[in-house]
Amino acid sequence: MSSPSTTTGHPKGLAVLFATEMWERFNYYGMRAILVLFMTKALLFDKAFASNLYGSYTSLVYLTPLLGGYIADRYWGNQRSIIVGGILMALGEFLLFFCASTYQSAPDVSAMLFFSGLGLMITGNGFFKPNISALVGQLYPKGDRRIDSAYTIFYMGINVGGAIGPIICGLVGDT
Prior knowledge:
The chain is mostly helical. 83% of the residues lie in helices and 0% in strands.
C-alpha cells in the first residue's frame, strides 16, 4: 500500500491520514466541548441527565472501537470500515446540527434527532478510530524505520485537532 514518497520522505497517504484524523478529532473534541451546555441550555435536559448522558456517550465512544476493529479484521477491512465510520459520523453530525436548528420549533423532533445523531457518532467512531491508525502502518513496508516518525506525525494531527476543536467550537457555539 506504499505510495510514492513526498519531499518529507513519507508516503503521500500519510498527509491524507494526518488531515483526516485531525479534522475528525477537531469535530469530536469540539462537539464534546459544547455538548453538555447544548443539552442543558438548548434541549433543557436536567443537569444530572445531561452529565450521565455525556459520560455514557464518552464511554461508548471508547468501547465501540473494540467491536469496529473486530468487524474490520474479520469482514470489512480497514478502508471500508473507515469509509463507513466516516459516513456514519458525518450523518450523525448533520443530525446534531439540524437538531440545533429545530429545538425551539419542534422539541420532540429535536430530541429524536439528537439521540439519533449521538448514536450514529458512536457507531461511526467505532469503525473509524481503530482502523485509521492501522492504515498508517500499512503505508510502509515491513521493517521500515520511518514508521516511528510516521506515527509521531499522525498523532500530531490528533493533538492539533484536539487542541483547536474546543477553542473554535466554543467560540462559534457561544454565538
